[in-house]
Amino acid sequence: MIFFTGDTHFGDTRVLRIDRRPFPDMASHDAALIENWNAVVGQDDEVWHLGDFMSVKGGDCADLLGKLNGRKHLIVGNNDPETTTGSEGWESVQHYAEIREGGNHLILCHYAFRTWNQMGKGSINLHGHSHGRLKPAPRQLDVGVDAKGLKPVSLTEILNSGTNTKGSANGM
Fold first, then answer.
1. What is the largest CA-CA distance in the chain?
2. Pick from 56, 63, 76, 84: CA 20 to 30 A from residue 171's CA?
3. pTM
4. What is the pLDDT of residues 112-139, one digit of tens each?
């Protein structure tokens, strides 16, 4: 199965304050996100992380990746340092990707787009960065942890959420 997530910000104390995540400290934040991830993602699953994985202050990225189930791909975010992007443990690292899953053409980037490839043909833009604060748009979804219950989500869950994956061919 394929899962999507983003904006985990492991080791980044700013998310406790700015995003008001419900944890008293980073140790409990990071432990909960690891537990949530592993509760839904199996060892043989694939995870696309859409940016802002961890702070340079968060420790060793390869060590953290080893604690998380699945084969992991990184779409680089604005808060991903070289210690994250250059770490061992990623299947791939890129700024943008297009994949097909379940008959859907998915456009993956850390950032939300106003328009994207094959938008008029029903493609879906999955993104992070906005921490659940953007107004929903047709066929565009924030898969970051703040928008998705602090855990990775499957495409089935995304499509069944229904709030912003349906719409006209031009979408906006």
1. 45
2. 76
3. 0.92
4. 999 999 999 999 999 999 999 998 889 9
The alpha carbon of residue 155 and the mean position of all alpha carbons in its chain are separated, in whole angstroms, by 12
**Residue 11 backbone zone (phi > 0: left; psi -120 to 50: alpha; other: beta):** left
**Top-level CATH class of 2-161?**
alpha beta
Burial of 140 (0-12, 13-18, 19+ CB in 10 A): buried
pLDDT band at residue 53, thresholds of 50, 70 and 90?
very high
